[in-house]
Amino acid sequence: MEQFVIVGGGPAGHRAARSLLAAKPQARLAMVSNERQLPYDRPHLSKRFLLGDDSSPSLLADLGLRTESRIEWISGAAVGEIDREAARLHLDTGQSLAYDKLVIATGSRVRKLSAEVAQAPVHYLRTFEDALALRSVLASHAHVVIIGGGFIGLEVAAAARQRGCRVTVLEAQPQLLARTGCQALSRWAQALHTGNGVELQLQVNVNAIERGAAGKTLVQTSAGPVLADVVVVGIGVQPNAELAGTCGLDVDDGVVVDRNCATQDPNIFAAGEVTRYPVTQLGVHTRSESWTAAGEQGGVAGSAAAGDRSAAYGEMPWLSSDQYTSAIQCLGIPQLASKYAYLGDVHTDQWLAMGWSSDDRLVCAIGANRNRDISAIRRAMKRNEPLAEIYASALKSAQTTTGK
Ligand SMILES: Cc1cc2nc3c(=O)[nH]c(=O)nc-3n(C[C@H](O)[C@H](O)[C@H](O)COP(=O)(O)OP(=O)(O)OC[C@H]3O[C@@H](n4cnc5c(N)ncnc54)[C@H](O)[C@@H]3O)c2cc1C
After folding, report:
1. Alpha helices in 181-290, H assignment, sequence order
2. Does residue 402 surpass a pLDDT of 60?
């Protein structure tokens, strides 16, 4: 009987297991995760989890990992090497595992400050343990300094404000959410957070984080020192692609896969945040940092590993973020947009920005509290259907933007 192995227990690995077992209910499957927890909901960690008192993570649908003998669940162990010639994995526990088909779903890890800069303890947020540690220090009136004004930093800022903390966000770029490339969203997020009492410092570089007196932390910045009780760093992630790279698979800021989640090795598939995959509608490859995308792509990887070559994933990146009572959604690749049209007033709490490339292809849609519109656009693009008139006619009013 064929032996399948999935490395990684995030949404990509979890969905890969589900689709694999749906296609091959009798398959022999092992899942290896270097985390100790059963697969859990990571997005929850920077939102409601920080506001509540749950002592365990919110788990994903039960795969029977604790009970079912057909899935060998190996947790708290990292795969350190893939030996493609022998079709074996070597774990850091000394164990080795043979595979016929392998799915790499190793996700990303947080980008860290160098030891030269971080001379005092700081918090990062990726895992359940990270979230537990951060929550335990978010006491009312603490001064929380957040380095990085991206989605994670801003979600933590919102939660910390809701916990009654004083919050300062330090961002190196001239705007928040700079990586989305949509100025309307950056300005709106700035108004949202300052309106909720967050102190923002833009275009500020952090030079050093030092221990201060009385248990405080001193953040030395290009604009002067900032005294903090808690420092949280959210400066992005990097894909856990070394495992694939060192065994000779194609890696280019992520494991390169095709629409079937296949690597250049016919026995190895990859899915989720660790991959660089082709976005069919836009004709480009991208790496997506999205919960939904990771799950959907994982489902395809599981089917493909089980032999179903009709399964394909080429969706536009799509991510959401909840901050205070607002929901932000970003579909597509804003960096490709050269002109935008807006539905709704971007100075209010409900608006939609649609971005077109210079050759009039819709390349992104970004919305504040316009989830239904984004879903409608996403559905239409996925099915290759014409856009509803309300969206299609927006192109006529699209304004060319400079600097996006
Ligand atoms: C705090 C937080 C909030 C987020 N909020 C949102 C949100 O609101 N919306 C959204 O769309 N996205 C959000 N994201 C992003 C989303 O969680 C990720 O895109 C998604 O988890 C990626 O899934 P994945 O399965 O590819 O990788 P991961 O979830 O990173 O899972 C990969 C797993 O593989 C393990 N692993 C890595 N290397 C090895 C190895 N060598 N051996 C064994 N195991 C290994 C990792 O430890 C991890 O458990 C958030 C992320 C974080 C951290």
Report:
1. 183-195, 242-246
2. no
